[in-house]
Design a protein that fits this description.
3 helices; single chain; mainly alpha
Length: 163
Amino acid sequence: MLDPNNPLFWVLVAFLAFVALVLYYKVPAAIAKMLDDRADGIRKELDEARRLREEAQALLADYQRKAREAETEARTIVDQAKREAEALAADARKSLAESLERRSKIAEDKIARAETQALSEVRATAVESAIAAAQELLKTRVKGDVGNSLISQSINDLRGKLN
């Protein structure tokens, strides 16, 4: 079986030489070390990925919480703005009503003053017309000093009574 002319013999020798060289240069240890280093690198990458995933989940939860808080705050602001708008509208309606009432009262006062003034003017005109008419009547009907004294006395009496 160990015949040097047999090609299997040389294959066996070459194989043993190859195994001896591999063992001499510590290739299995180098391969094992390389595989261990690679496994450690993969483990570190997995740990880093896990840590990053946990951080991402924490950030996501934080952002979701902040989004809910912002939505609640926005809703509160909108509700408050609605209440303020309603209050402002009510105040505006009240102010308008008060302003209209005030202007109406001012207009009524002006009308009353105008009526009073017109009535006074009509009375004054009536008094003057009555005096003038009385003067003309007395002048034409009563002559002399008696007429003049009666005219003066009547005018004074008439003014006192009509004013």
